[in-house]
Design a protein that fits this description.
The protein has about 120 residues and is of the alpha+beta class. It has one domain: 3-Layer(aba) Sandwich (Cytidine Deaminase, domain 2), CATH 3.40.140. The protein is built from three helices and seven strands. The structure holds zinc ion. Zinc ion binds next to helix 3.
């Protein structure tokens, strides 16, 4: 993935909304194939029936948005985290996402996972 692509993504998508209040930072994920951005998504927080809130992580959200997993072949998945003050923070995927992304590499040919 080109640095310029990462920079453009961060500039375009890092806006963190002021609502809801517990959302002071946001994880974003993008899938880049042949220097084209084919999907972008952010984590979302939703109400669940049982335990109040759950978070759909950006990595899962972007794969759902992509839809067609065959598009992962040779692609890079880029994850970044931005605060409301536009600081870019560590966004290493959590254990569950890392396991899911490993499967994407093995099964669908995802080539790289890069994070800030
Ligand atoms: Zn995760």
């Amino acid at each position: 993935m080109r640095q310029s692509v990462a920079r453009a993504l961060i500039e375009e998508y890092s806006h963190v909304p002021n609502n809801p209040p517990h959302n002071s930072q946001v994880h974003f994920a993008a899938i880049i194939s042949r220097n084209h951005v084919v999907a972008v998504a952010r984590n979302t927080i939703a109400k669940s029936n049982r335990s109040g809130f759950f978070t759909k992580h950006a990595e899962r959200a972007v794969l759902e948005r992509l839809g067609d997993m065959s598009l992962l072949r040779g692609a890079t998945l880029f994850v970044w985290r931005s605060t409301r003050a536009s600081e870019i923070m560590n966004s290493k995927p959590c254990k569950a996402c890392a396991a899911m992304l490993d499967k994407c590499c093995e099964k669908w040919g995802l080539k790289n996972v890069v994070w800030t």
